[in-house]
Amino acid sequence: MIYSCCVFVYCLYECFKYKNTVNYRMLFFLITYSVVVSIVYLKLKEPVFHQVMYGTLVSIIVLRSVYIVLWVYPWLRGLGYTSLTVFLMGFFLWNVDNIFCDKLRALREKMPPVVGAVTQFHAWWHILTGLGSYLHILLSLYTRTLFLKHRPKVKFVFGIWPVLLVEPPKNL
């Protein structure tokens, strides 16, 4: 989770550049951050530390994304806010599962198996954050291709699954 969020942070801060260069300072910082968080977490085995470090990265991603959809490409608000909402729903369910784990487990034992499976909120955390992350990748790709003067379009496979199609820039 930490490593993939660092990739998101790097991409969001590098999407508005013209030259084919590498921001070595940011790259060094993000790699160092990931390695230090991993080492400290493995030493301490304290989930709250990992959650705070992960939350810090997610906050940076959210702030940068809000900046992009408010000031740079406001017509992308729907996609930006949808990805954030889906991700936050997963985060909310994960916390409900963490706080009420024992009570939910006892409740699931009394429910039919199908209902019990649907109330596995930790699983919903993975599903919803995965979907939210996918939508955020779509937003990042859309932002970068717009900046490069391509013509991206979101299409829906089977009417439900969004994908990005990119046409080359028009010759001026």
Automatic annotation (TrEMBL):
Biological processes per GO annotation: ceramide metabolic process; phytosphingosine biosynthetic process; sphingosine biosynthetic process
Purpose of the protein: Hydrolyzes the sphingolipid ceramide into sphingosine and free fatty acid.
Keyword DNA damage: no
Source organism, top-level taxon: Eukaryota
First and last residue of the signal peptide: none
Organism, scientific name: Malurus cyaneus samueli
EC number: 3.5.1.-
Alphabetically ordered keywords of this record: Hydrolase, Lipid metabolism, Membrane, Metal-binding, Sphingolipid metabolism, Transmembrane, Transmembrane helix, Zinc
Protein name: Alkaline ceramidase
Required cofactor(s): Zn(2+)
Topology class, membrane: Multi-pass membrane protein
Pathway listed: Lipid metabolism; sphingolipid metabolism; Sphingolipid metabolism
